[in-house]
Design brief:
The structure is a single chain. The protein has a 4-stranded antiparallel sheet, with helices on one face. It has a two-stranded antiparallel sheet with strand order 4-5. It is of the alpha+beta class.
């Protein structure tokens, strides 16, 4: 196992789930601090009341390690102390990027304008839709039950075939014989009475 270098993360402990009295009562706070001052007289404390945590900054990694080994899970005012070494997040160094890079800008801009368009961005006009008149003509002259091959298949691709469905005249005539339901207009509410 490679030797680990000692940095400021090795001399910082986080006490989790600390009793609320440590943050509110002076006597309890002094008792809590005295536990750690026996390992390092220069230890400093940062309280995070809403998280019920205390950051303990020791002057040396050895003092922090001793306090962690001896005081972790020891009872304090009816609760076990939970002590952990702080994990220090260093900014990106030596070209190592710990985060994903944003996607290329060319993928962002479609036809509609982006929320914050970059300098020089211009609106792109939509092209007119492509209408295949040959296909429309072929489908129009087909009768029910016939088929039209759009694309001949090969060994590696399937063929594309259009089938015209048979229409039943009975189904089309039935709705014409039935009376259409009358749409009743919604009544307008009465106007308020003015005095």
């Amino acid at each position: 196992m490679p030797a680990r270098t000692m940095d400021c993360g090795d001399s910082v402990l986080i006490a989790c789930g600390v009793d609320v009295e440590v943050f509110t009562g002076q006597e309890t706070q002094e008792m809590f601090e005295a536990l750690f001052q026996s390992y390092d007289e220069r230890v400093s404390f940062q309280q995070f009341k809403s998280f019920r945590r205390v950051r303990l900054n020791f002057s040396s990694p050895k003092a922090a390690a001793s306090a962690r080994i001896e005081l972790h899970e020891t009872p304090f005012r009816g609760k076990k102390l939970k002590l952990y070494f702080a994990q220090v997040q260093n900014p990106v160094s030596d070209g190592d990027n710990l985060h994903l890079a944003p996607p290329q800008p060319s993928k962002h801009y479609l036809i509609s304008p982006p929320g914050s368009p970059p300098i020089g961005w211009q609106q792109i006009d939509e092209t007119t839709p492509v209408i295949n008149y040959d296909l429309l003509y072929a489908v129009a002259k087909m009768g029910p039950g016939e088929k039209f091959e759009l694309h001949a298949g090969t060994e590696s691709t399937p063929s594309v075939v259009v089938h015209v469905c048979d229409s039943d005249t009975d189904e089309e005539e039935e709705p014409k014989n039935c009376p259409r339901p009358k749409i009743i207009q919604t009544r307008r509410p009465d106007l308020p009475v003015s005095h």
